[in-house]
Design brief:
single chain; Rossmann fold; 7-stranded parallel β-sheet; binds NADP nicotinamide-adenine-dinucleotide phosphate; alpha/beta
């Protein structure tokens, strides 16, 4: 049996990852603040946790893990002069410290995986491409990218660590930017590939990064962004 922990697997990209990963000989464990957000028909374990404030207890998790995905994130966009210290601290707490706490507890369980293990973290297009009003989230996700590369170096060759940096993707987190036809049209047009993201755009890559087909890939930041970070 292969065990996968998807922190933030009850919604958006994380839920799609959990659904795509499902299969025989695979146990999916979702962690999020509210169990009721996990679709009723979906067969997965659930751990109720606010990862910005708590860490996992050992006994909540299986003895070994083959993969861990950390999805919780924030999109608090404000002009810099309106961002308070607390906004930066809160973004850092959820995006970075939640991932740090998760990896710390999971590390011994990932090390026990005989066939190797994989960690997938989430960044944002706004680290590579400077965007107005993104100072707080881009700072936090920049730290996630540093964490990704540091851990990839430290944990090789047993555990691979990669991150995905999406652009605007149609999930509950991004609803404020896609709430009208006009916003959707403009969001699509901003991307060279003329659409905003679907959860499966990132989820398929995350599943690939968890599986053995990606066993020679670590320390990478993957830009799943409709071309936004690299072409005009
Ligand atoms: N969607 C975008 O446009 C976009 C763009 C760039 C980057 N990203 C990044 O992509 C990742 C996935 O985003 P998404 O759009 O799929 O988000 P989402 O739909 O809001 O899902 C977030 C998941 O994390 C859980 N979560 C949030 N806060 C938590 C906490 N404190 N403790 C435990 N669980 C928590 C949520 O469940 P509960 O509410 O039940 O806790 C939910 O399962 C994020 O890291 C985000 O920053 C997204």
């Amino acid at each position: 049996m292969k065990n996968y922990l998807i922190v933030g697997g009850s919604s958006g990209i994380g839920l799609k990852i959990a659904q795509l990963l499902q299969g025989p000989e695979r146990e999916i464990i979702i962690a999020s603040r509210k169990r009721e957000n996990v679709p009723e028909h979906f067969h997965a374990g659930h751990i109720e946790i606010d990862i910005s404030e708590q860490a996992f207890d050992d006994e909540m998790l299986p003895e070994t893990l083959q993969g861990v995905v950390y999805c919780p994130g924030t999109i608090k966009l404000r002009p810099f002069h309106r961002l308070k210290d607390d906004d930066f601290v809160n973004d850092f707490s959820i995006n970075v410290m939640g991932a740090v706490r998760t990896v710390r507890v999971c590390l011994p369980l990932l090390k026990k995986s005989a066939e190797g293990a994989s960690i997938v973290l989430f960044s944002t297009v706004a680290v590579e491409t400077g965007m107005p009003y993104h100072a707080s989230i881009a700072s936090a996700k920049g730290a996630v990218q540093g964490l990704t590369r540091s851990l990839a170096a430290e944990f090789a060759p047993e555990i691979r660590v990669n991150a995905i940096a999406p652009s605007l993707t149609d999930t509950p987190l991004a609803q404020q930017f896609l709430s009208t036809d006009q916003k959707r049209k403009l969001a699509a047009e901003r991307h060279p590939l003329q659409r905003y993201g679907k959860p499966e755009d990132c989820a398929h890559l995350a599943v690939f990064l968890l599986e053995n087909e990606s066993s020679w890939i670590t320390g990478q930041i993957f830009h799943v962004d409709g071309g936004m970070s690299s072409i005009k």
